[in-house]
Amino acid sequence: MPFTIATWNINSVRLREPIVLKLLKEQAPDILCLQECKSPVDKIPTEGFAALGYTHMVARGQKGYNGVAILSRLPMVEVAAHDFVNLNHARHVAGQLENGVTIHNFYVPAGGDKPDREVNEKFGQKLDYLAEMRDHFHAEKPAKSILVGDLNIAPREDDVWSHKQLLKVVSHTPIEVEALAQIQDAGGWIDITRQDIPEGKVYSWWSYRSPQWAEADKGRRLDHIWASPDISNAGHGSRVYREARGWEKPSDHAPVFATFDL
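Above: the chain's sequence. Below: its structure in token form.
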């Protein structure tokens, strides 16, 4: 059974409900994973999504911050929701499809502005969060699983507009890149986007600070789709739906897609 999955940091699901509906209508992924929903679960506007066939949802939310949700046209049940580092943040939820595939939806802490945990508590929290993710997947090896989300790290040199200029900028520092690599190694995760698009610049985020974002194209690939090794060969069709970054009242992220034949 082939299905298409998309991941998108929406930066407020209630504020941006119109463009979520637009994406569902125009691109029709079977599963849409949202991050930074900024809403309690009972305030997520599910009626419009359900009217388009997305009648299943697993989610964790909180008022004004964080929040993750998985919208699905396929039957899904919640199987996990981890609060790594005990931050009491809504940053992870996992759902399982009837075919046994588990989908993890993550929103990793951004980490603040300074890449130094001694002066920036948020950076320390990010590193600790990543370390606990590593330990979790080392202890519980994923099988028949997909991990998606805003991981807030652009790992490769061609995942950012300028590797040299961003080496000391949070999201592309060597310590973060190494931490993300350790999570991948711990779970044997395969980066599906880069499996499909092995070479060239790929971005999923462009700063609001650049009104000419498309022309400047100073992006970063912060949003990821991974798969456990037992199903990674089933993944294909990866793409970033860049057009959504230019919609009215957009998120600063664009949706990332992949299809799995399972």
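The chain has one domain: 2-261.
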